[in-house]
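Possible regression after last week's pipeline update?

I re-ran a chain I had predicted before the update to compare outputs. Posting the input and the new output here so someone can diff against the archived version. Not blocking, just want to make sure nothing changed silently.
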Amino acid sequence: MAWRVIVFGPEETTRGLQTAGMTGGAMEFVAAQSPSVDRRRGLSAEFDAIIVCLEATEAPPQELCEQLRATTNLPLIVLAEEPDADTVVQVLGWGADECLDSSLSSREIVTHIRAQIRRATDYVSEGEPPEQLSVGSLEIDIARHQATLQGEPLHLTPKEFDLLACLARYPGRVVPREEIIAAVWGDTLDPDSRSLDVHIGRLRRKIEPEPANPQLLTTISGVGYTLQAE
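New output (post-update):
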């Protein structure tokens, strides 16, 4: 299921984000038709996040952000032209969750949006993350560092296990390369390294009936990977 993001700003911004977001079929961007109308709609029922373009909204941006925040808890990201520290502080004071430089690439902005949505949907509960993960016939025991497929143990290296667990936390969703690398390797791996692809190949040989034709662990070209239930 694609995440949906409403954009209060110029249509060219929406189109640019749409191209980056739909590369993996994972995110849809919708241009707001009218701030006064869209602000009254049940945004939380239709969308997963909100984008406000600071310099290009029909309504005053402060008023728009404050009214949006008063009516929804959706992640709210503001795009601004070369924002300085004062602008960032001001925008966050309006209720935004993040203020990004609008000159960033669409792909980078989409990655930030994904992270904000995940933070709002997957990390809402306090306490420890779940110790048991299930994706179809894959069972992953985080505490014991063990995984099984159709009841049979998988013999994984530590990095293969961490990689599988990272993807299993978001079944059916595209996890960008940058997020996978940060979760599994931290700052020790160059984002452009092919080590991730090598580990993906090794993991496929252990979980896929036909590793050359993967059905469980699939590549979303130019974005990342997704783990599907059978």
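Follow-up from reviewer: compared with the archived run. The chain has a mean pLDDT of 81. Marking as no regression found.
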